[in-house]
Amino acid sequence: MVFEIIISVLLIIGGLFILIGSLGLLRLPDFYTRLHAPTKATTLGLGSVLLASMVFTYKIEGYISVNELLITLFLVITAPVVAHILAKVGFHHQVKMTANTRNQELVKVARVRGKPQNKIEE
Amino acid sequence: MLKRIFPLPHHSILIFAVWLMLNNSLSPGHILLGIVLGILIPYLSAPLRIPQPSIAKPLKLFPYVLMVLKDIIVANIQVALLVLGPTKNIKPGFIAVPLDIKDDLPLTVLASTVTMTPGTVSAEVSQENEYLYVHVLHLPEDEQEIISYIKTHYEAKIKEIFGC
């Protein structure tokens, strides 16, 4: 009974955060801000779902499953790389930013991997 | 001699452990296969490796991982609130974080940490690893605040762990 409640609560929290991550993709104003939603909201969401899965296999199937730990490990390694590459691609394609983005001039130097002191003339 | 068979001992142990975890079993067959893979893969891939600074203080890793886990949870809640609130209040921006770390591996760890934690995504590194460009979802008025947070919270600790 207690375990069922724990599993349910974890699944609800996980579902909620994954939903919010998807909502973020829909609602945030531009490409760069949209990058934040899937890299963050989903880590906690997926983490709770995996934790629920571990509790479930321990209680119902009767053994400790460690595959979930590996999924977490691979997620933590790959998610930032994807976000980094997407941001880089955004620089090179000169994706539009929302008007209230500050320090927009940094994109120009970042694109050529320069230092912020060197101003780039277009 | 031992160096010839195990050119990368840590990698051998890691491959062995990950193999057993992937198969979720401790049967003799999988242990044998894990040992074979743990010897064969590092043996074949060692010549391709670019030398990286090794971890000088492994014990410091645990408090670091715990701190990052805590920050990930905080980050999730902060981003969730920003997403659910009115989106026109969000003030994004770019910052350039000057780096003390110059080596690739510690820098990768730092950039990944920055991406996983509150409202920041690392986007680009300047040549010769001098600046890390970061996109911030909600940039406070004083951007120095975030830069010094990244430097004292993450960079200083990574420097300590890698001893560079």
Automatic annotation (TrEMBL), chain A:
<keyword id="KW-0812">Transmembrane</keyword>
<feature type="transmembrane region" description="Helical">
    <location>
        <begin position="6"/>
        <end position="26"/>
    </location>
</feature>
<dbReference type="Pfam" id="PF03334">
    <property type="entry name" value="PhaG_MnhG_YufB"/>
</dbReference>
<feature type="transmembrane region" description="Helical">
    <location>
        <begin position="69"/>
        <end position="87"/>
    </location>
</feature>
<keyword id="KW-1133">Transmembrane helix</keyword>
<keyword id="KW-0472">Membrane</keyword>
<dbReference type="InterPro" id="IPR005133">
    <property type="entry name" value="PhaG_MnhG_YufB"/>
</dbReference>
<dbReference type="GO" id="GO:0015385">
    <property type="term" value="F:sodium:proton antiporter activity"/>
</dbReference>
<protein>
    <submittedName>
        <fullName>Na+/H+ antiporter subunit G</fullName>
    </submittedName>
</protein>
<feature type="transmembrane region" description="Helical">
    <location>
        <begin position="38"/>
        <end position="57"/>
    </location>
</feature>
Automatic annotation (TrEMBL), chain B:
<protein>
    <submittedName>
        <fullName>Na+/H+ antiporter subunit E</fullName>
    </submittedName>
</protein>
<dbReference type="Pfam" id="PF01899">
    <property type="entry name" value="MNHE"/>
</dbReference>
<feature type="transmembrane region" description="Helical">
    <location>
        <begin position="61"/>
        <end position="84"/>
    </location>
</feature>
<keyword id="KW-0812">Transmembrane</keyword>
<keyword id="KW-1133">Transmembrane helix</keyword>
<keyword id="KW-1003">Cell membrane</keyword>
<dbReference type="GO" id="GO:0005886">
    <property type="term" value="C:plasma membrane"/>
</dbReference>
<dbReference type="GO" id="GO:0008324">
    <property type="term" value="F:monoatomic cation transmembrane transporter activity"/>
</dbReference>
<dbReference type="InterPro" id="IPR002758">
    <property type="entry name" value="Cation_antiport_E"/>
</dbReference>
<comment type="similarity">
    <text>Belongs to the CPA3 antiporters (TC 2.A.63) subunit E family.</text>
</comment>
<feature type="transmembrane region" description="Helical">
    <location>
        <begin position="12"/>
        <end position="41"/>
    </location>
</feature>
<keyword id="KW-0472">Membrane</keyword>
